[in-house]
Amino acid sequence: MRPDVRAWCGTGRADVKLKVDLHMHSCLSPCADDDMTPNNLVNMAWLNGLDAIAVSDHNTARNLPAVKAAADARGLLLLPALEVTTREEVHVLCYFQTVEQALAFDRWVYERLPDIQNVPRFFGRQVQMDAADEAVAEEKRLLISAIDAGVDEVARTAREMGGLPVPAHINRGANGLLTNLGFIPQSAGFCAVEVSRRSPVPAADLSAFTVLYASDAHRLEDIPEDGHLLEAESREAIAIFQSIAKRAKG
Description:
Blueprint (H helix, E strand, L loop, with lengths): L15 E9 L13 H10 L4 E7 L5 H11 L2 E2 L2 E5 L5 E5 L3 H13 L8 H4 L3 E3 L5 E4 L12 H10 L3 E4 L9 H4 L11 E3 L15 E3 L15 E5 L4 H9 L5
Parallel strand pairs: 1-2, 2-3, 2-4, 9-10
Antiparallel strand pairs: 1-11, 4-5, 5-8, 6-7
Helix pairs in contact: 1-2
């Protein structure tokens, strides 16, 4: 039976503190370095003492199977994710409990991605890899394009498919929710938001949301040693879901 993410808001106790980075990119994102291979990014996160990571490539989940294999080998918890660019040019992180769920959502997203070809010399390569960091495909369609779905539809569909939508870097000048819309729409049903430490503190009242901080790493040197401390019931994806979804005001 598929869990209802909305039912998790305001639940759970905190027994475990996890050092997490829940927003980073692999070499399948055109704006990420080619060195951000599944094994490289997992090993850097492991060396830096992180307990859990989320790899959230732009509009795709197809490097997640390789990342999951690398993370399992290191005993590192992976929260599978995509960073979706909505019709409004807003970035929304969509977290899932399993790679299979993320890949199913990937197919929904790809159907709505415009047929605009990537220009690698300008945007960067989009390389899909296997568990041995061998290239198995190179995506031709530009993955950073806005899909044909708005913020509300992306959030609703992610939840219907077992996911947890969180608007990314809401205070950032480019692709931030507050910058592009000027407000956090109640209709999207967000329980949490991500705030960038590299941008001005948002003026909006965020007391009703769980606030996340992450590196948005596109290079190996961007992966932090400190991470974001997240309290959860256990070292499992479902517990991270519950921790993120728990509203500050139940």
